[in-house]
Amino acid sequence: MVGINFELPSPVMMPGHLPVMLAEVLELLAPEPGACVLDATFGGGGHTRALLDSAPGVSVVALDRDPAARDRAASLAGSRGQQFTLIDTDFGRLDQVETGPLDGALFDLGVSSFQLDETERGFSFRHDAPADMRMDPRCGVSAAEWLETATEAMLVQAVREYGEESSWRRVVRALVAARGTGRLARTASLAEVVTEAIPAAQRRQSRIHPATRTFQGIRIAVNDEIGAIGRALPVAFERLRPGGVLAVISFHSLEDRPVKHFFRRMCGQPLGAHDSTPQDLRAKFAEPLTRKPRTASRAELDTNPRSRSAKLRALRKL
After folding, report:
1. What are the tens digits of pLDDT across the range 118-137?
2. Residue 173, CA distances (Å) to 124, 176, 198, 200 in order
3. Which of 56, 72, 74, 93 has its CB surrounded by the most CB atoms within 10 Å?
4. What is the pLDDT of residues 157-176, one digit of tens each?
């Protein structure tokens, strides 16, 4: 195995972005000279840059649905030539992308710090903006339009399942009642609708803003984030060469759950407490590199608060 020599990306080079668990990602993927790696979530390019620098001749195929990613990738595209390719697409459409055989694949799930920090993208209620929340504003419908037209079952799924909001009934009723009033069109008024629906006692006891969970659920629904994970992981695994590594960073239980189940299935492990399939009948296609998900070091937590909830899982294809 070739030793890894890298430097953490400078905040000056990549303002607003620090790649999460970079040292751990490089340790697990450990690209050898000439390896081809998929970075399914380019973001600010921190992981991609470090992978390119990790060994001679490493190439990276990166995906990102955010049209702003092309500008962030311009310096890499200009300096790395054929070693770096950025494809303008959602990783949920990985089956439609030609990557060739892969020695490694990385997924850094969730919304990027760039998207959160761009007020006009409407991901956050910290500043008033149109309630958009699309990772690719060229596709689909905005959160505002989705809220106006979604069925009640879709709203329940977003608020209860994706947002994990305990007062989901109240919130769903409030969202339906606010239709046609204009209050769902902007982040500030949308946050007010949700906050007013949360019981006062719950608001006082919570350490987070009352609209946080519902905003998360709406964002996940608008971008089909959970569905994309379920579609992409089998494709990425299929394209790995024997010995190739698949690594996934998730930031909450909704993302981690399908990753955990997919990994256990590939490694021939029980899918849950009620899975009584005999071991000799389980198909094993991979070995786990992380028995339990790895988390960020104390040093990283001090410099990059976003890493606080990160969980990293990895497996090696047999």
Report:
1. 778 888 888 899 999 999 99
2. 22, 5, 11, 17
3. 72
4. 999 999 999 999 999 999 99
Q: What are phi and psi of 317, to 5 degrees?
A: -70, 135
Last residue of a domain, one of 223, 251, 272: 223
In order of 116, 199, 279, 309, the CA distances from 56 in angstroms are 34, 58, 41, 33
178: nearest Cα among 225, 210, 143, 134: 143
Q: Which of 191, 223, 255 is the last residue of a domain?
A: 223
pLDDT confidence tier of residue 305, bands split at 50, 70 and 90: confident
Three-state secondary structure call for residue 99: coil
Q: Is 63 helix (H, G, I), strand (E, B) or coil?
A: strand
Summarize the chain as % helix, strand, coil (round to 5): 45, 15, 40
Give the domain range for residue 103.
Answer: 22-114+225-317
Percent of the chain exceeding pLDDT 90 equals: 80
**Which structure tokens are listed for 93?**
């459409």
